[in-house]
Specification:
It comes from Frateuria flava. There is one protein chain. By secondary structure, the chain is mostly helical. It has a domain of 35 residues. The protein has 2 helices and no strands. Helix 1 packs across helix 2.
């Protein structure tokens, strides 16, 4: 993973980010861009890394 500590994210959030990243790579995005989009999307949906 690129920047930041991802340990505060739930397993569900990590899975979501992985699926988004794979989808973005299929669309032709680079690894870094796909990863950035994936985590930005998870952050926007859930407000960042949280554990309930």
């Amino acid at each position: 993973m690129s920047q930041g500590d991802k340990s505060s994210y739930t397993d569900k959030q990590k899975r979501q980010a992985q699926h988004i990243e794979e989808s973005e790579k299929k669309e032709g995005k680079s690894q870094d861009t796909a990863e950035r989009i994936a985590w930005a999307t998870v952050n926007k949906q859930d407000g960042g890394g949280k554990k309930s």
